[in-house]
Design goal:
This protein is α+β, with helices and mostly antiparallel strands and about 90 residues long. The protein has a single domain, classed as Alpha-Beta Plaits (2-Layer Sandwich), CATH 3.30.70.20. The chain contains 3 helices and 4 strands. The protein has a two-stranded antiparallel sheet with strand order 1-4. The protein has a two-stranded antiparallel ribbon with strand order 2-3. Strand 2 and strand 3 form a beta hairpin. The longest helix has 5 residues. The chain is globular, with a radius of gyration of 14 Å.
């Protein structure tokens, strides 16, 4: 018998969230200051839709899928991520 644990919460199906392009509705976007960034990975861990990926020695935000929630900015311990207006 195989038991599969599936989380059905708001962010439970990350694969489906990443297939939804942000389009025109995002109002703010995160901007990373790589000079300040210490590559702690908190943004990567806390990003709800998982649109931050590790590339080499830094973390990169995929703006095609970023929803603009600002959680990455709020958890950054060195304030390397700021939210700027899309306008």
């Amino acid at each position: 018998m195989e038991y599969v644990l599936k989380y059905d919460g708001a962010w439970g199906d990350v694969d489906n969230l990443l297939s939804l392009s942000t389009g025109e509705w995002r109002t703010h976007r995160p901007v990373v200051d790589h000079e300040k960034c210490v590559n702690c990975g908190w943004c990567y861990l806390y990003c709800p839709p998982g649109c931050i990926r590790e590339e080499g020695d830094q973390f990169v935000i995929d703006l095609n899928f970023c929803k603009g929630c600002g959680i990455c900015s709020s958890v950054c311990p060195v304030n390397a991520i700021t939210m700027t207006s899309e306008g």
